[in-house]
């Protein structure tokens, strides 16, 4: 998208204001989008509500068919989608293609599994309810407001959008102001695949004020992905109307490397996990705790691999520019701060932090209370600290205000899984990094400053439903307890029976 004409798929804005997107690499103007305000959003949400009624009434198999048609449309237009992502974020086209591929996997899983996961399910009744048939039903919530970030502008919001639609909801999507084109394209492709349900997924564009208006618009849930600071603001708005809220925020993910780990594999994964997408990955590797015996060798291998990477523009670059210009100052503060308090730069250092391309930085010996260890850096920087053993590594990994993902490199998968169980993280990969993000059946999300709630997997489908419990009385009960006409003797018999049963153990 190189024109500056307003994007077609976004609804007409009542206000005349527009904003432009720019290439993070060159500053070149890419396109212009309307700034949608409260009135526009009210209109879009009302339309979504009408459309949703028809969508929810469809048999689940028909919704699956239409979502798979949308998936096919995205796959057929993969090149355009990847190019749009690459233009808006600056990431290499190959990375953007991988993002689309992962997105397709998730959409396919949500579409195919929603009927099974959300279908009516019978449950057993109890001693005093044998006369009832009981079941639970997952009902869509209605209209979901999705507020997305810029770092994975397709994959991340699809974790909410695809699953919410599969569960029978409509979605109003507010992408980041840095990546509106990707959001607009996504809705356009939905409309082209399911024109009879146009309005079910609408992308509105704008910055914080547009997101705020969406949170205030009466949607039935807000699914937010972004920084914890913004999550707090949006949650406060949702609290006013008790609108349910889901928060997928940042991370400070740790990797633990044990003495018997395959150091070559660990170094390879750490370099990719820390530096791909210029380190702008919520569950990217930011801290490594390596046991003392292997610390030096691991550092040497990481430095050698990171040094060999080419950063910059073009398809052969390992990673591209910092997408958010303001983030460079945060990275600079973390790297300079780490060095100022005794950390050593094994590669890069403060001089490597230049806009828009930040060269890889590998640090060691950084005090645990330095901002480089406590705050999300969101840049191509990794710290590798030595620890006495696994216990210390686990303690340090868990001593973060974030708790999103983690990884363990260990000679035995079984021991790795035992270490994983001690980690306070929403997801852990053993002998790989970010393995969990590519398995659609696995829920994703964190705790503490990383947010709460889960996207992906069965939990990610249920997150966009409310469960309704239903009983159907099959015959009049022998011991009726829900009537004023129950004789005292019947009640006493029930109490005797319950006491006899529950006293046993
Ligand atoms: P951000 O918090 O600046 O913005 C996120 C979204 O919120 C944007 O669409 C923005 O326009 C909107 N927004 C800003 N102020 C708002 C307000 N007052 N009311 C409503 N909406 C508002 O985050 P970002 O810089 O776009 O994204 C980077 C952050 O996202 C990082 O912390 C990263 O770790 C996190 N992230 C988390 C995940 C995850 O799944 N856990 C995935 C990707 C990114």
TrEMBL record:
Aldehyde dehydrogenase domain location is: 17-470
Q: Does the keyword Oxidoreductase apply?
A: yes
Q: What segment(s) does the record annotate as region Disordered?
A: 1-20
Tell me the active site.
248, 282
Q: SUPFAM superfamilies in the record, alphabetically?
A: ALDH-like
Q: Name one Pfam family in it.
A: Aldedh
Recall the GO molecular function terms of this protein's record.
oxidoreductase activity, acting on the aldehyde or oxo group of donors, NAD or NADP as acceptor
Mind listing the UniProt keywords for this protein, alphabetically?
Answer: Oxidoreductase
CDD domains (UniProt xref):
ALDH_DDALDH
Q: Looking at the keywords, is Oxidoreductase present?
A: yes
Q: Which InterPro entries does the UniProt entry name for this protein?
A: Ald_DH/histidinol_DH (IPR016161), Ald_DH_C (IPR016163), Ald_DH_CS_CYS (IPR016160), Ald_DH_CS_GLU (IPR029510), Ald_DH_N (IPR016162), Aldehyde_DH_dom (IPR015590), Aldehyde_DH_NAD(P) (IPR012394)
In its UniProt record, which GO terms are filed under biological process? Answer: aldehyde metabolic process
Instruction: Give the family from UniProt.
Output: Belongs to the aldehyde dehydrogenase family.
Write the protein's name.
Answer: Aldehyde dehydrogenase
Give the organism, scientific name.
Streptomyces gancidicus BKS 13-15
């Amino acid at each position: 998208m190189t024109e500056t004409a307003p994007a077609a798929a976004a609804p007409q804005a009542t206000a005349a204001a527009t904003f432009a997107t720019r290439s993070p690499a060159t500053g070149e103007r890419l396109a212009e989008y309307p700034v949608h305000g409260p009135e526009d959003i009210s209109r879009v949400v009302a339309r979504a509500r009408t459309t949703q009624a028809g969508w929810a009434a469809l048999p689940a198999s028909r919704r699956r068919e239409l979502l798979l048609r949308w998936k096919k449309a995205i796959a057929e237009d993969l090149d355009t989608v990847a190019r749009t992502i690459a233009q808006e974020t600056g990431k290499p086209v190959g990375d953007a293609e991988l993002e689309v591929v992962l997105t397709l996997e998730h959409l396919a899983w949500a579409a195919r599994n929603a009927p099974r996961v959300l279908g009516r399910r019978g449950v057993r009744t109890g001693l005093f309810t044998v006369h009832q048939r009981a079941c639970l039903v997952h009902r869509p919530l209605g209209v979901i407001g999705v507020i997305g970030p810029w770092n994975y502008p397709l994959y991340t919001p699809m974790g909410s959008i695809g699953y919410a639609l599969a569960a029978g909801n409509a979605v109003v999507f507010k992408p980041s102001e840095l990546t509106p084109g990707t959001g607009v394209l996504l809705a356009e492709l939905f409309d082209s695949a399911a024109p009879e349900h146009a309005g079910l997924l609408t992308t509105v564009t704008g910055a914080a004020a547009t997101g705020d208006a969406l949170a205030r618009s009466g949607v039935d849930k807000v699914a937010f992905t972004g920084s914890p600071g913004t999550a707090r603001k949006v949650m406060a708005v949702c609290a006013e109307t008790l609108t349910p809220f889901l928060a997928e925020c940042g991370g400070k993910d740790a990797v633990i490397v044990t003495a018997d780990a395959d150091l070559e594999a660990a170094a390879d994964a750490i370099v990719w996990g820390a530096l791909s997408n210029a380190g702008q990955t919520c569950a990217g590797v930011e801290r490594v705790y390596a046991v003392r015996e292997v610390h030096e060798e691991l550092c040497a291998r990481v430095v050698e691999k990171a040094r060999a990477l080419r950063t910059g523009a073009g398809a052969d670059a390992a990673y591209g520019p910092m997408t958010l210009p303001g983030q460079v100052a945060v990275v600079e503060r973390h790297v300079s701060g780490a060095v100022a308090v005794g950390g050593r730069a094994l590669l890069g250092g403060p001089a490597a932090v230049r806009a828009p391309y930040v060269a890889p930085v590998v640090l060691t010996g950084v005090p645990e209370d330095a901002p480089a260890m406590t705050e999300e850096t969101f840049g191509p920087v990794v710290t590798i600290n030595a620890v006495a053993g696994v216990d210390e590594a686990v303690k340090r990994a868990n001593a973060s205000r974030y708790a999103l993902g983690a990884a363990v490199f260990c000679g035995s998968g079984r021991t790795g899984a035992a270490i994983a169980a001690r980690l306070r993280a929403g997801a852990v990969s053993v002998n790989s990094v970010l393995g969990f993000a590519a398995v659609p059946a696995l829920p994703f999300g964190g705790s503490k400053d990383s947010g709460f709630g889960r996207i992906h997997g069965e939990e990610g489908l249920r997150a966009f439903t409310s469960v309704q419990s239903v009983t159907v009385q099959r015959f009049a009960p022998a011991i009726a307890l829900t009537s004023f006409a129950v004789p005292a003797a019947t009640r006493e018999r029930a109490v005797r029976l319950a006491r006899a049963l529950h006293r046993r153990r």
